[in-house]
């Protein structure tokens, strides 16, 4: 009866986020209780009491089937482990305990987006998406299929075919359609995350902007849906490119191609963080580590782009950047003083300016950081000779001066501030 009420609630209700957490907790408890009692089932034809208990539990099979269909329609309420547990319970009840819940057929190994040699495997959710009883075809009448891959939706298959087209407009249109599917979180993309990620990353190396800009948009949409896996994979690839350039100086790939690819990958990472919104601070440390690796790259363009990405990260995180302000100031000081490239020094001054975009002095910036930042910018303004770098330094000093004045002095009186209102709460 409890499972039927839960199915009815999930089918007809539209609830808030706190009620979603309550339903998720109730579902987890019910599945755990049912798994405990179902594990005690041992089919014994000679014991009528045990057979009667198996039959009573078997009556739950239709309810569990209905619950499985409802949960697949509302996939945000259940994770892959709970969905697999529900599938095992359905199998166990359908076989009256003949299949043991605690004896899986085989172990699965996690798939990494970073390893191109690993074959593509479907999502764990899709591995449980098959009927309880399957009709096996004869060996001589039908080819043997693995049964582990989720069938491809016709719309998604058309996109895959167009991505292999030699014409640039066709491939660009396919990437745009794929981005729309990912942005709308269409169910047809579930189970094909690895394949989609590899295709989008592959099209980043295209020289045509119609292709690689659409690929960046698709990676950002994919990262918003599967953040933990996709964002970590992109950050890992970015670090690998820096490490590979340091370790293998005789690479066959031209340095220009590597730099362009790395810049595009960095743009995809930052766009993913912008899509995350309030969830972006959760990935602050790993993104900061990757960006700091990019600031040590031998190529000036990569160093400048990494500092610009860090400035964008400061604008996104705001107060959440407070625990790492000393590390950010160390990067500003090092590149503004010692870097030989004007573009890198300009990006470093822009990073300093990004810390001071509020009306007043940020309360999350330590006083000693503000003092040292003012001294650094003032001294570099007297020494720097490049006009583009001087422009950014002057802009940063202007922002610092404005924030300090707004924090120390009150705003001048105006006509609006002198107007007084008299309100009578209880007129006679």
From TrEMBL:
List the Gene3D superfamilies hit by this protein, alphabetically: Leucine-rich Repeat Variant (1.25.10.10)
Region Disordered, annotated ranges:
106-128
Matching InterPro entries, A to Z? ARM-like, ARM-type_fold, Rtp1_C1, TANGO6/Rtp1
Taxonomic superkingdom: Eukaryota
Q: Which GO terms describe its biological process?
A: protein secretion
Name all RNA polymerase II assembly factor Rtp1 C-terminal domain ranges: 156-279
Q: Pfam families given for it?
A: RTP1_C1
Concerning its family, UniProt says: Belongs to the Tango6 family.
Please give the PANTHER family that the UniProt record associates with this protein.
TRANSPORT AND GOLGI ORGANIZATION PROTEIN 6 FAMILY MEMBER (PTHR20959), TRANSPORT AND GOLGI ORGANIZATION PROTEIN 6 HOMOLOG (PTHR20959:SF1)
Q: What's the protein name?
A: Tetraspanin
User: What organism is recorded for this protein?
Assistant: Paragonimus heterotremus
């Amino acid at each position: 009866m409890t499972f039927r009420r839960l199915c009815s609630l999930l089918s007809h209700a539209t609830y808030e986020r706190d009620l979603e957490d309550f339903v998720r907790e109730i579902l987890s408890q019910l599945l755990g209780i049912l798994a405990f009692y179902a594990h005690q089932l041992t089919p014994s034809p000679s014991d009528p009491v045990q057979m009667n208990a198996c039959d009573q539990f078997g009556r739950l099979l239709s309810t569990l089937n209905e619950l499985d269909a409802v949960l697949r329609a509302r996939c945000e309420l259940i994770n892959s482990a709970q969905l697999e547990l529900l599938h095992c319970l359905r199998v166990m009840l359908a076989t009256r305990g003949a299949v043991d819940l605690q004896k899986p057929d085989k172990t699965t190994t996690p798939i990494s987006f970073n390893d191109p040699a690993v074959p593509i495997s479907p999502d764990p959710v899709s591995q449980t998406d098959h009927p309880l009883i399957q009709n096996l075809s004869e060996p001589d009448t039908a080819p043997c299929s693995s049964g582990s891959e989720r069938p491809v939706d016709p719309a998604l298959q058309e996109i895959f075919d167009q991505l292999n087209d030699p014409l640039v407009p066709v491939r660009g249109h396919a990437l745009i359609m794929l981005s729309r599917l990912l942005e709308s979180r269409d169910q047809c993309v579930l189970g094909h995350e690895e394949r989609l990620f590899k295709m989008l990353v592959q099209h980043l190396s295209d020289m045509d902007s119609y292709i690689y800009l659409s690929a960046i948009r698709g990676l950002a949409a994919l990262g918003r849906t599967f953040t933990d896996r996709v964002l970590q994979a992109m950050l890992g690839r970015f670090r690998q490119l820096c490490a590979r350039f340091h370790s293998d100086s005789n690479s066959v790939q031209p340095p220009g191609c590597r730099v362009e690819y790395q810049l595009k990958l960095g743009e995809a990472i930052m766009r993913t963080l912008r899509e995350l919104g309030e969830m972006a601070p959760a990935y602050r440390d790993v993104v900061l580590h990757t960006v700091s690796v990019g600031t040590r790259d031998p190529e000036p363009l990569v160093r400048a782009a990494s500092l610009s990405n860090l400035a964008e990260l400061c604008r996104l995180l705001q107060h959440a950047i407070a625990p790492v302000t000393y590390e950010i100031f160390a990067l500003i000081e090092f590149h503004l003083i010692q870097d030989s490239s004007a573009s890198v020094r300009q990006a470093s001054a822009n990073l300093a300016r990004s810390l001071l975009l509020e009306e007043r002095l940020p309360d999350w910036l330590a006083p000693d950081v503000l003092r040292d930042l003012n001294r650094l910018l003032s001294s570099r303004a007297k020494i720097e000779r490049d006009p583009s770098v001087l422009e950014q330094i002057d802009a940063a000093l202007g922002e610092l001066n404005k924030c300090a004045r707004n924090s120390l002095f009150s705003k001048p009186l105006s006509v609006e501030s002198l107007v007084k209102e008299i309100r009578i709460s209880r007129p006679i």
